[in-house]
Design brief:
The protein is an all-alpha fold. It folds into three domains: 5-87, no CATH class; 96-214, no CATH class; 227-311, no CATH class. The chain has 19 helices and four strands. The protein has helices at 10-14, 21-25, 35-38, 42-49, 52-55, 70-73, 77-82, 96-107, 111-114, 120-123, 128-131, 172-175, 179-182, 200-203, 223-226, 241-245, 268-275, 296-299, 301-304, and strands at 189-190, 238-239, 256-257, 310-311. The strands form two sheets. A two-stranded antiparallel sheet has the order 1-3. The chain has a two-stranded antiparallel ribbon with strand order 2-4. It binds heme C (10 copies).
């Protein structure tokens, strides 16, 4: 299959010094340039002209390389002459993986997309164009700045743009398929995704990756949570072991929880005592249970053990 890699082919690079794409590749290569498509495909041409793909032909390093319509649809000279749909690459009958390969011929090189073929989306036939639209989305408008809180966000409201050529903005895009997680963001304690304060992609890479289950960034002492909660990362003189060994998910759920502070247990002592069992024998594998009483005075563990994620001064996390 022809996959839009004309930019690297020898034939094209030899002609790199010529001034314009059209004149550089029109002759016997079968390319005519995007202008030739305008008259018959007004809608696509108009929508496309607002995208960053359309800007490529104006960038110096792309001069003489195949850009525009033909970078995806292949050489269009024969098709342009009489409009025969059989003489142009069409994606109508292509599988999602084939279409994605066309995009990856240019995009695979960047870290963000390197691992697309290792992700759950690829495995489940979700391709680039399930989330992106190359010439039907509105682009170029500003994102509502009042929604920009911890990260660029884009609550979808009429009149506001779709960033990054997305078919729909987040989180609606993700929730259109992942309905099962939506209710979690309505629980009493939750990350404000539905409010537009942050996005699914702050924690997940929709393009795949090496982290937990390969699509998302890990819960642990890793970038996903630390990007925003750096103060919990340490290093501390006195680390609370599970923060480092099991990660944040030892005690928190990421999306939402009926318990305060996204905790996995409804009461703090209940959480602590799942690991710090009271009965403690020397040499046991579990961490020590508290030697102090478990009467009411001690019930609210984090009243005294305040720096529960780790401390610079107190081995029992008092300050
Ligand atoms: C002379 C008019 C004309 C020109 C110029 C033209 N097309 Fe077309 N194109 C057509 C017609 C007619 C169809 C078939 C109508 C349809 O299927 O909707 C078509 C269909 C297509 C299709 C869909 C194929 C399919 O399977 O339905 C693509 C993709 C396409 N053109 C791309 C291009 C590109 C890229 C260019 C510029 C290089 C271009 N066209 C130039 C007339 C033209
Ligand atoms: C970045 C890759 C890319 C570029 C560049 C591109 N297209 Fe497309 N085109 C697609 C894909 C993918 C589809 C299949 C529909 C979809 O998923 O959006 C498509 C579909 C089409 C169709 C079929 C009708 C439809 O909407 O399904 C036509 C016609 C078309 N493109 C014309 C053009 C023209 C004209 C240009 C330049 C102005 C162009 N395309 C630039 C990727 C591209
Ligand atoms: C000819 C090479 C090429 C092909 C083929 C290509 N792209 Fe791109 N694309 C680029 C370049 C270069 C940029 C701009 C720099 C960047 O962001 O990487 C870009 C930018 C983008 C952006 C960011 C847009 C923005 O507004 O920030 C998206 C999304 C994108 N491409 C998706 C796709 C999809 C989906 C396909 C396949 C249907 C595709 N691209 C095919 C070269 C290509
Ligand atoms: C499951 C949905 C989904 C799929 C599938 C997907 N993307 Fe994206 N992509 C996104 C989202 C969401 C963003 C915006 C992230 C942000 O706002 O920072 C994005 C951003 C981008 C960007 C701009 C940011 C950057 O890294 O430069 C490019 C380019 C891009 N995608 C290309 C692709 C390509 C190529 C494919 C297929 C190989 C693809 N995407 C598949 C959801 C998806
Ligand atoms: C077109 C439908 C579709 C869209 C849109 C979509 N996904 Fe997916 N996603 C899937 C399918 C199908 C799977 C694999 C089956 C499953 O685990 O649900 C998947 C898997 C995942 C997984 C891995 C789940 C696991 O158990 O390993 C994550 C995380 C994910 N998607 C996040 C996102 C995010 C974030 C977005 C928005 C940027 C998004 N998805 C958009 C369909 C979609
Ligand atoms: C604060 C970070 C964060 C945000 C924001 C976030 N996720 Fe997740 N998500 C995670 C983590 C971490 C996991 C892994 C949970 C686990 O393994 O127990 C996960 C798991 C998932 C899964 C796998 C199924 C499951 O329940 O284990 C899907 C699907 C998913 N997220 C989709 C989404 C969607 C869609 C959004 C946006 C509406 C989103 N996530 C927002 C961190 C986040
Ligand atoms: C994009 C930034 C961002 C990321 C990434 C992020 N958080 Fe948050 N988190 C916030 C913000 C902002 C708040 C407080 C505002 C709010 O209530 O939403 C918060 C609140 C919390 C709270 C307190 C909730 C409450 O009810 O008081 C916990 C616990 C938490 N995050 C854990 C995590 C974990 C675990 C991860 C990784 C899976 C994570 N966060 C990833 C931004 C982030
Ligand atoms: C050993 C259990 C445990 C682990 C592991 C843990 N936390 Fe917590 N975290 C708690 C408890 C308990 C609270 C509530 C403290 C209180 O009662 O005020 C809390 C509160 C929070 C809060 C809200 C209050 C504040 O101090 O800002 C955030 C944010 C938070 N944790 C983030 C994280 C992140 C990020 C990680 C992973 C690096 C993590 N936690 C790992 C037990 C844990
Ligand atoms: C996921 C298991 C886990 C949870 C939940 C947990 N801890 Fe720990 N905690 C540990 C481990 C493991 C150590 C290290 C024990 C060692 O080195 O002997 C530790 C160490 C400690 C220490 C330092 C003293 C010592 O024995 O080393 C204190 C104090 C402590 N935890 C209090 C708490 C409190 C309070 C909570 C509830 C907010 C809590 N822990 C929740 C596993 C846990
Ligand atoms: C009123 C304050 C206070 C409260 C509340 C409290 N602790 Fe402690 N905790 C202490 C003191 C004091 C020590 C001993 C510190 C030392 O040895 O220097 C301690 C020590 C510990 C230790 C280290 C092992 C040991 O016994 O020396 C663990 C584990 C611990 N507490 C867990 C808990 C748990 C779990 C809770 C909640 C059920 C809790 N604590 C509630 C004050 C408190």
């Amino acid at each position: 299959m022809w996959v839009g890699s004309g930019r690297t082919s020898e034939a094209v690079s030899k002609e790199k010094d010529k001034p314009k794409l059209a004149s550089a590749v029109s002759d016997d290569s079968g390319y005519v340039g995007s202008d030739a498509c305008k008259d018959c495909h007004e809608d696509q041409s108009k929508a496309f002209s607002h995208t960053s793909h359309a800007q490529l032909s104006t960038i110096r390093s792309w001069k003489g390389k195949v850009t525009g319509c033909e970078s995806c649809h292949g050489p269009g000279k024969a098709h342009s002459e009489e409009g025969d749909p059989a003489k142009i690459i069409s994606f109508k009958n292509k599988s999602s993986k084939e279409t994605s390969e066309t995009c990856l011929s240019c995009h695979a090189g960047r870290e963000e997309h390197n691992n697309f073929r290792r992700g759950e989306h690829w495995r489940n036939d979700i391709g680039c164009t399930d989330c992106h639209s190359t010439h039907s989305a509105e682009t170029g408008k500003n994102v509502a700045s009042s929604n920009v809180f911890v990260a660029e966000a884009n609550a979808q409201k009429p009149g506001f743009s779709m960033v990054k050529l997305l078919r729909t903005s987040e989180p609606q895009l993700c929730l259109s398929c992942h309905t099962e997680v939506k209710h979690q963001f309505n629980l009493p304690s939750h990350h404000k995704v539905l409010e537009g304060a942050m996005k699914c992609s702050d924690c997940h890479n929709p393009h795949g990756g090496f982290e937990l289950k390969q699509t998302r960034l890990a819960t642990g002492a890793d970038a996903a949570c630390m990007k925003c909660h750096a103060d919990k990362q340490g290093p501390f003189a006195f680390e609370h072991a599970p923060v480092k060994t099991e990660g944040c998910s030892a005690c928190h759920t990421p999306h939402g929880s009926a318990n305060p502070r996204l905790l996995t247990a409804s009461r703090v002592p209940q959480l602590c005592l799942t690991c710090h069992s009271v009965a403690h024998d020397v040499g046991a594998i579990e961490p020590a249970g508290p030697q102090h009483n478990l009467n009411a005075q001690y019930g609210n563990c984090t009243n005294c053990h305040i720096k529960i994620h780790g401390s610079h001064t107190s081995p029992v996390f008092f300050r």
